[in-house]
Every structure is written in C-alpha cells, then in structure tokens.
Amino acid sequence: MDKHMTLKSYSEAIQVRFKDIDIFGHVNNAVYNEYYEAPRLSLLMYQQEPLVDIGAYYVLRHIEIEFINEITYPSTLRSFLYIKSIGNTSITFNQALYLGDVMVSRAVSTVVQLNKETKNKQPLSQTLKERLMPYLF
Q1: Phi-psi region of 8 (alpha: psi -120 to 50; beta: other; left: phi over 0)
Q2: pLDDT digit string (tens) for 69-120?
Q3: CATH number of 3-135
C-alpha cells in the first residue's frame, strides 16, 4: 500500500454493487467517479462540523482517473484520500481505491468552493484552511 495513503489520509469502505457491473463482468469505468465522490463528500460534508464555509458548497472542477486493475462483484474496496493542496478557492485531493492490498485505481480531483447565493467562487476562510490541514500531505 502506498505510504501516502496511510499517513494523514481519510479512509472508508465502499461496497461494489451488482448494478455497477458491465457486460464484461467488471465495474464500469463510469462508476469509478461515484467511488471517488463518496469519500470526498464524507470528509467534507458529512461530519458533525462540515469542512465548508457557511453559505458555501463544493463543486467538482476536475477529476483524472487511472484504471490499474479490474474490480468485480462482489467486492469491498477501501478508499483512501488526502489533500494534495489547498488553494484560494479550491482543494485538490489524491485518492486511491484498494482491493485488499492491491491498488486498483487512483485519481486526482479538485473541488471549488462556491457561494450559495451568487454561485461564484468563494475563497476558503483561514479557519477552514486550518481545519483542512490534518489531511494535507
């Protein structure tokens, strides 16, 4: 396992669903984005104190996915992510999916914080940046 995915990383299990499988018997490439979205949302939004500024939300700006090994059903994956960089309005993540000790995919994704009312980019507050620091590697 990549040492970066154990230090300062956020992790959660992902259950492969039967509906994720294509006619070739492996997870359809389009589903991988969902596998990467779930832990990002869990880390940023689904905590007692969400990691987002008041009056703001995140949108996915960019994702780059590398498909390394196939995933079949049934499987339980382990998703790891850590923050690669914190920008003025954005957060970039390194992410990976593991099946046991084998990396099956990795991704780099960037989210941008937007103001709920104006829909414009909203700078990350200093307080938010400090709260994100434990996940920065």
Answers
A1: left
A2: 999 999 999 999 999 999 999 999 999 999 999 999 999 999 999 999 999 9
A3: 3.10.129.10
